[in-house]
Backbone:
């Protein structure tokens, strides 16, 4: 029995991307290990075609979206359509619910089973851009009906993400959670020396690993820091990430004399894990997150998380963290709630929660959504070493 050619299309992926890039990489490695042939097509500044540990990766030149901090999209339907026809996919997986939705109709015409992965909720993103809840919901419902019709299946990573499709009565929705590298992300990475380097004597070291863009609401992290310090709590914040909001966040931190260290994009995943392990609390303020890989990585490192109650994160972190309303005072309250727990207890709970999520299970769930059984046994778990 031979494997299937699974062609994957994704937009909004850059060398400095976070969760989506990680998920694409780990799933590709898993598909390859299971005996299938993954081919990933993404936009970039130049054309390339490479064989990588996650399978073949094709980059097509795509325009950069102004104000997004480097995001590009696969433009030019004619060229992408020709590429799809040349590749001859036996399965199609699309990680973009906007500009690439037409590919579901292409797959339907060519009798190729297709999957759209819902990495964000449509109404959640629309709300973060200032639309009213009612208008965002109506617009999202129209978009989601078209997506549910176009694709064979819609994959949602959490029950929270699934709700907007349940709301419209979609019958082709399946659940497939993401995973975390439990080897790279581990409590043993915690370094008191690294913590001291960034804390500057603070009682509480906070960490934000996030793209600095409007939908991620990074300003809430600064709001929480300011609130804690106003209450007399010596706290400091490290920000690992880049994006269009960085200049304004830096100006604010300097103007309010907030102890914030902006590291920019940290490309070294080992260094990111060290930061996640060294922090006392990681913050996940994005209200439209449908899973939150960075938060799960923090839990795997033994670090509890305070997350937006408006997002899917409460479902992911459970009692290994605290959900908070989207305000600085509420996030500050949640941080202090975590500090009311003994450190060994809160760190053990974080790791235990993360251990419920692994990439092997995630790959199995995604392959099931594709109706693609593994054709090779004994494959090593994605992200594992040795």
Residues:
């Amino acid at each position: 029995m031979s494997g299937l050619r699974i062609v994957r299309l994704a937009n909004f992926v850059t060398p400095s991307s976070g969760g989506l890039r990680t998920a694409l990489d780990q799933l590709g490695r898993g598909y390859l290990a299971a005996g299938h042939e993954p081919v990933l097509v993404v936009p970039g500044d130049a054309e390339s075609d490479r064989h990588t540990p996650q399978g073949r990766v094709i980059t097509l030149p795509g325009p950069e979206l102004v104000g997004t901090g480097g995001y590009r999209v696969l433009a030019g339907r004619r060229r992408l359509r020709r590429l799809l026809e040349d590749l001859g996919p036996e399965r199609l997986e699309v990680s973009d619910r906007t500009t690439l939705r037409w590919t579901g109709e292409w797959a339907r015409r060519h009798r190729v089973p297709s999957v759209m992965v819902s990495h964000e909720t449509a109404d959640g993103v629309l709300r973060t851009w200032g639309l009213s809840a009612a208008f965002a919901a109506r617009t999202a419902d129209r978009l989601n009906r078209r997506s549910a019709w176009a694709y064979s299946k819609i994959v949602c990573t959490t029950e929270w993400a699934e709700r907007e499709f349940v709301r419209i009565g979609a019958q082709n929705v399946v659940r497939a959670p993401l995973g975390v590298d439990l080897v790279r992300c581990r409590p043993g990475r915690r370094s008191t020396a690294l913590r001291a380097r960034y804390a500057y004597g603070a009682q509480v070291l906070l960490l934000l690993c996030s793209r600095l863009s409007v939908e991620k609401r990074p300003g809430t992290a600064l709001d929480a820091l300011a609130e804690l310090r106003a209450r007399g709590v010596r706290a400091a914040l490290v920000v690992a990430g880049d994006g269009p909001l960085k200049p304004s966040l830096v100006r604010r931190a300097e103007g309010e004399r907030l102890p914030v260290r902006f590291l920019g994009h940290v490309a070294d995943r080992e260094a990111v894990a060290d930061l996640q392990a060294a922090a006392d609390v990681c913050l996940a303020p994005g209200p439209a997150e449908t899973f939150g890989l960075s938060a799960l990585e923090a839990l795997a490192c033994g670090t509890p998380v305070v997350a937006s109650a408006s997002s899917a994160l409460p479902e992911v972190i459970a009692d290994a963290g605290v959900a908070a309303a989207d305000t600085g005072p509420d996030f500050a309250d949640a941080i202090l709630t975590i500090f009311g727990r003994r450190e060994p207890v809160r760190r053990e709970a974080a790791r235990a929660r993360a251990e419920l999520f692994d990439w092997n299970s995630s790959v199995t769930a995604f392959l099931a959504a594709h109706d693609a059984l593994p054709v090779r046994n004994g494959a090593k778990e994605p992200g594992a070493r040795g």
